[in-house]
Give the backbone structure.
Amino acid sequence: MRAGTTVNVHEWDRRLRAAPPPGLWFSHDEMLTLVRDNDQLIDGEFFGVPFGAAADPAQAVLRIDLFDSGEATVVLDPSVIGVSGAFERLFGPEVAVPSIGTRDADLAAYRVQSLLLAFLDTLPAPGTAELRLQAEAVRAVHETAPRIWDVVLTETPRTDFPDGPLPGSLAYRTDQAPLAGEVLVWMLDGRIDSVELPWFTTEMPAGLPRPDQLIRAADERDGGHGVR
């Protein structure tokens, strides 16, 4: 905080640590004080809700992320909040997103998209170009059941693949198991519909596999010896 601020940093920190999920909610005046008196914010995720609305990220019309005090992203509901010409000149043109969401949701979408692209690498080339366009068009994911993520895509060309799982082969390990499960990609009406991660272990794995935990079936390029 800047010198001379009225903010009691230790008290705000205590409130933050004591706040139940999803975190500490500021009043309008407190947020103005934070903006005016703050000199550096290392990391933070802020949600703005309309006056009178519940303190709930699901009601948010504005989200601001700050990273390492030098990078920020702003997501807003344009039906409620406008963007000035000066803002666009400074930060560039707007990019459409399907929802305000959360940073964790954005990370899940990125990880699922990475799994999709890795899975498509296991398919034969014919017919996969459209699938790759769809994978690159992932904008959000929703975990609808344990280890199953429904995929939200922007409009992309449909494919001729039938409904059901694609024929690729991609397994994954965890830090505890050398073979923990596999990746399944489900199609519906010519579009990628969901990603499923069945598990072979007694306990259900936590989280999405990292790139270094993926196991691809051997192919002709490595002489058919084992996995790579």
